[in-house]
Inverse folding.
């Protein structure tokens, strides 16, 4: 119904940068909030950053000052610029969107398949 596709993950050395992207497509919708989460094997999924339709952002304390979330409302895309990466940032990163489908009353959550980010020391 609604598809989220992440891209931009890969292998980078500590101190380097990556830019993740997520594109939403499918049914007609109005996306209220988009977010990035991350999850390591055996660990709980962690909220990294959020951005609403007005451009307000929130960040986990562990990434604040290093990561920047942005979005293009017209294209229903969200990006995560990751700078000063450390091995602790190694995780699968997931895109999330809360969206109202056309004619809908309440928002629904949608998830991407995830993209691997690996930071070497």
């Amino acid at each position: 119904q609604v598809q989220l596709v992440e891209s931009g993950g890969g292998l980078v050395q500590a101190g380097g940068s990556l830019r993740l992207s997520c594109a939403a497509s499918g049914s007609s919708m109005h996306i209220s909030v988009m977010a990035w989460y991350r999850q390591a094997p055996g660990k709980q999924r962690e909220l990294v950053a959020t951005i609403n339709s007005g451009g307000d952002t929130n960040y986990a304390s562990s990434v604040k000052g290093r990561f920047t979330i942005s979005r293009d409302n017209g294209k229903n895309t969200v990006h995560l610029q990751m700078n000063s990466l450390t091995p602790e940032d190694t995780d699968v990163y997931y895109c999330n969107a809360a969206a109202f489908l056309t004619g809908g009353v309440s928002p629904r959550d949608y998830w991407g398949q995830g993209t691997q980010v690996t930071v070497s020391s």
